[in-house]
Amino acid sequence: MIKQDDQFKKVISHAKEYGYVFQSSEIYDGLSAVYDYAQNGVELKKNIRDYWWKAMVQMHDNIVGIDAAIFMHPTTWKASGHVDAFSDPLIDNKDSKKRYRADVLIEDYCAKIENKIDKEVIKAEKRFGEAFNKEEFLSTNGRVLAYQEKIDTILKRLGKSLENEDLADVKALIEELEIADPLSGSKNWTDVKQFNLMFDTKLGASAESAMDLYLRPETAQGIFVNFLNVQKTGRMKIPFGIAQTGKAFRNEIVARQFIFRMREFEQMEMQFFIKPGTQKEWFDYWKETRLKWHKSLGMGDDNYRFHDHEKLAHYADAATDIEFKFPFGFKELEGIHSRTDFDLKQHEDYSGKKLQYFDHEDNASYTPYVLETSIGLDRMFLAVFSNSLVEEELENNTTRTVLKLPAVLAPTKAAVFPLVKKDGLPEVAKQIVDDLKWSFNVFYDEKDAVGKRYRRQDAVGTPFCITVDHDTLNDNTVTIRHRDTMEQKRVKIAELKNIIDAEVSFKSWLSTI
Questions:
Q1: How many Cα atoms within 13 Å fall on the side-chain side of residue 378?
Q2: Burial level of 323, CB count in 10 A (0-12/13-18/19+)?
Q3: Ranges of each domain in the chain
Q4: Stretch 63-85: mean pLDDT, rounded?
Q5: What is the mean pLDDT of the chain?
Q6: CA distance 486 to 454
Q7: Which residues of 351-371 are buried (b: 16+ CB within 10 A; e: fewer)?
Q8: Buried b (16+ CB within 10 A) or exposed e, 194-233
Q9: Angle formed by the axes of helices 167-176 and 142-163, to 10°?
C-alpha cells in the first residue's frame, strides 16, 4: 500500500514531467503557492470548466452565465462583510518561526484519527473477506465509534469557538491535543490571531487621487450586484440562476498542498435565486444534483461524502461541503450554501438601490433568497488528476504508469502513429489527424518504437492511440488501442470519429446523471 505522502509526491512530479502544472516563475526560484498550467494542464482545466458549464448552464433553461470584472467598487466588499470579517485564525510556533492556520492544525489532527479508522477497516476487510460489511462495521465497532466520537467532539468544539470568536479556546484546544509543529515537533505556540486575506491595490494615475481597491476574494459578489441587470434583460422568472467562472485571490499565509490551496485560483459558482420559504427543498435539490455531477465522472462513489457545517455563517441557514478523498485525506471540493437574503439586502443597504423581484403571481415584491453552489476549479483539477494516476502491474511482470483521466476531460483524445516513418504511412497518419482535429484535440507522433509511444500516451492520459501500418494502405483500416484496457481492434478509418465520439462526448457522460 503506497503511503499518502509518497502518492502525493508522485502526483506533483507527474504533473510537471508530463506538462500539466509548473511552478510559477520557476527560473527565478518560483513564487510560493502560485502555479502555471502547462500545455496539457490548460486543456484539462478548460475541459473541466466546459463540463461544468455544459451541465450547469446549457442543460438548465433557467440558468444563465456572466463574466464580472475582477475589480469591483470597494464598497462591494464592505457590504459583503469581507473588509471586516474575511480572515483566518493564525498561530505561530515560537521555536520554528513557522505560521499555521489554527483550524487546519486541528483538522489535520482529526484526519490522522480518520486514518486510524481506515486502517481498522482494511484489517477487518482482510479478516472477514467477502462477508465484510463496511457500513455495519463502521456503525458497530467499538474502536471505530470511539475514534469517530473523538473527531466529532473536537470539530464541534472548534466550530463553536470560531463562531464565538473565542480564539483563546482554539489555542487551548491545540494545547490540550498536544498538537506539535509538523516541521520541528515543537509545541511552543503563540496566541491565535485573525488575519485578513484580501489583497489590496490602487486605482488611479497618481497616489493622491488613487482609490483603494481589492482583488476579489470570491466571484459571487459580481453575480449579486448584477442580479437585477440579468433578471430584467433576460426576463428571468424566479427561480433562476446566474453562473460564473473566474479568478479569485486570497492572501493565504498557509498556502500548501500543491494546487489545493493557492493565492490565485479559479472558482465555478452558481447563485440560484429563489422564493423565501423554499430554500430547504432547493438546498436538497442542489445537494443531490451536484453530487450526481461529480459521480458522473466515474471516479469512485466512495471517494465522496457530505460534510455538514457545524459552524454556519451568520447569514446562512444551511451549509454542506462535498468532500473528496484526495491523497492527503477527505477535503472540501464544493460548497453548497443556503445564504438567505443576506447578500442582496446588504447591497441594497450600502448602494441605496433596490434589488428586489416583483412576483406577478403573488402581485408582490420581495428580496429573493439565494442557494449557492461553489466549486474550486483548481481543486477539481487536483481531484481528477490525483485520482487518475495509477501504476499497474502487467502480466509480463512489468509496470506501466497510466493517467486514467475521464475520457471526456482528457486533454488529447487520440494520438495517431505511423508504424514507420516511410512507405507513405506518415502521410496517411497526418491525413487522419487533419480529419479528426475538427472534432477532437489529437496528437501526431512518429518518434521511437510504437510500444514506447503507447507508454508516453498512457502517462499523459490519452484515451486512444491509432496506428497506421502497411495494411492500412490496402484496406483503409487502422489499429485503435484503448488506454485503460490496452485492447486493440482493427477498424475502418471512416469509423474513427464515431468510435471516439461515443467515448468522449459530453452527451455520453452527462446523460448518465
A1: 22
A2: middle
A3: 1-69+210-390, 412-510
A4: 92
A5: 93
A6: 9
A7: eeeebbbeeeeeeeeebbbbb
A8: eebbbeeeeeeeeeeeeeebbbbbbbbbbbbbbbbebbee
A9: 150
402: confidence class by pLDDT, cuts 50, 70, 90: very high
- Please, how many CA atoms are within 13 Å of residue 478, restricted to the half-sphere of its CB? 25
Distance CA 340, CA 508 (A): 36
pLDDT tens-digit map of 282-309: 999 999 999 999 999 999 999 999 999 8
352 vs 437: CA distance, rounded Å: 53
Q: Is 474 exposed, middle or buried (0-12, 13-18, 19+ CB in 10 A)?
A: exposed
Residues linked to residue 443 through DSSP beta bridges, in sequence order: 415
Helix axes 102-128, 167-176, angle to 10 degrees: 40
Distance CA 188, CA 194 (A): 19
Q: Where are the alpha helices (DSSP H) in 164-278?
A: 167-176, 220-224, 227-233
Residue whose C-alpha cell is 493557492: 262
C-alpha cell belonging to residue 206: 497618481
Cell triple for residue 462? Answer: 490519452
pLDDT at 32: 85
Burial per residue of 270-295, b for 16 or more beta-carbon CB atoms within 10 angstroms, e otherwise? bbbbbbeeebeebbeebbebbbebbe
CATH 3.40.50.800 for the 412-510 domain, yes or no: yes
- Confidence at residue 255, expressed as pLDDT on a 0 to 100 scale: 64
**What per-residue confidence (pLDDT) applies to 3?**
60
Three-state DSSP class for residue 477: strand
Cis peptide bond upstream of 426, omega within 30: no
CA distance 125 to 501: 39
CA atoms lying within 13 Å on the CB side of residue 439 = 18
Answer yes or no: is pLDDT of 6 > 90.
Answer: no
Nearest to 226 by CA among 316, 343, 341: 343
What SS3 state is found at 266?
strand
For the record, the C-alpha cell of 382 comes out as: 487536483
Q: Closest Cα to residue 321, out of 308, 312, 310, 311?
A: 308
Beta bridge pairs of residue 333: none
**DSSP labels for 267-302?**
EEEEEEEE-TT-HHHHHHHHHHHHHHHHHTT-S-GG
At residue 314, φ and ψ (nearest 5 deg) are: -60, -25
Q: For helices 102-128 and 142-163, what crossing angle results, to 10°?
A: 160
Fold of the 1-69+210-390 domain: BirA Bifunctional Protein; domain 2 (3.30.930)
On whether the CB atoms of residues 368 and 362 are closer than 8 A, the answer is no
